[in-house]
Prior knowledge:
9-stranded antiparallel beta sheet; single chain; elongated
Amino acid sequence: MLADVPDGLKTVLEQVTPNFEENLKRAFINEGIRIESMSGWKSHSLDDVLDTIDNNIVELRNLKLTRTPDFRVNNFSVDLTMLTVNLGLSPGQLKVEGEYEVANKALQRILPISQVGKIVIILENVSCDGRAGIYIKEDSFVVENYDLMYRPSEVSIRVSYFKEDGVEVDNEIAEADIEKNQIVKAFWVQLTDVLTNLLHRQLGAVIVEYSVNELLLDEGEPNQMSSTF
């Protein structure tokens, strides 16, 4: 937030915001298209996870987000007087794949039997809502301090493993409430960090291209923004 914004500068900021907002939104969308054409189906690795769920030791390993998400824009607004970008985005469907191993904690010492298989977690209609802070570095805008909430409409988990007779078994469970899904919660912070970093690359790459002085030059107020800190 700008400290002690003079009334004249505040008026100028309000006047230049609509055009800046529209240009930044367009640049953000175009950058997303460019990233998708360059990256395609690029996956993003997550760290292995070890957790205890219902008296079972669960290890998730070789996890990866299978592709770079496409951040579709539902809401994109800029408040230059508060130095924030308000975001309402839809990363859409996200898929995390990997391997799992489950062992019963109570029986582990006397009966070290575990089940190993593949796991696919599908997060449907993921939304991303919140805001990001802006600060001024020399003559450029830089985005930082993201405050975002990610939420899927539904989570489905598919597991596959082989029984002793060699028959492959497939199971799928769907859950609308992510708070009740212990598997997803085990890697959720990691996943949202990856998503935010990808969003930061996309937004940061375009906002830094705008000159603060050029933005204000037509209104006759160059250099006044940085002097308000």
